[in-house]
Amino acid sequence: MTTQLFFEPSGRSNLQSTQQSTQQSPTGWRQSKWLIVVELAIVFSVFVADAHHLIPISKTPALLLLAWISLRVRRVKWRDIGFARNRSWRMTLALGIAGGVFLEIQELFATQPLLARLTGKQPDLSDFQVLTGNVKYTLAAIALSWTLAAFGEELVWRGYLMNRVADLFGYSRAAWFTSLILVNVAFGFAHSYQGVTGIIEEGFAGVLLGVMYLWSGKNLTVPILAHGVSDTLDVILIFLGKMPGV
Fold this sequence. Notes:
8 helices; about 65% helix; mainly alpha
């Protein structure tokens, strides 16, 4: 795992440095700002389609397909945005697991109680009530937590979208900060079924996952593990009937 910070002295991202160090970077329309705008418009259209119940189960597969197409068109590899073999699996596992436990603790004992007091509502997790006391559904939910949520969402939100928004603004420090906030505000709204408390809570969790991604040297394995650990703990608490909002 790389240990360098995501803000390089030159203000460029690891992705940009990687692209420039390999053969010839794609030029012209493949690297145009207009292509980014088109991609973000498609992301918005996916949100609209989902709001009208035109997308079954989850937006993540559609967004993951868009991410794959974008990388193929731009001749960028998944490893260029952080999905690559880790140099130190022990360190990566430690950071990911610790990050997941931290996410869960701050959610249960800090952000969720505070937001519940401010909004007067717990996050609406009634859709998951079927898991309570049901081993079969709980095991299925844990599997989905690691595939659709942890793996899929981190590739889309922290890997693909954060890089594209930062690219739109020029890969400066301000660009990465803007990307961190804007992308994870959208991530919060992607959980609108949880109500206003859930939107804010998930948006804040997305920011923390984004920080993990950036400060681990853009290593996607860290937020993938953290996301999976946190969601697994959530599912277990729901199974036990101990999760607020269910």
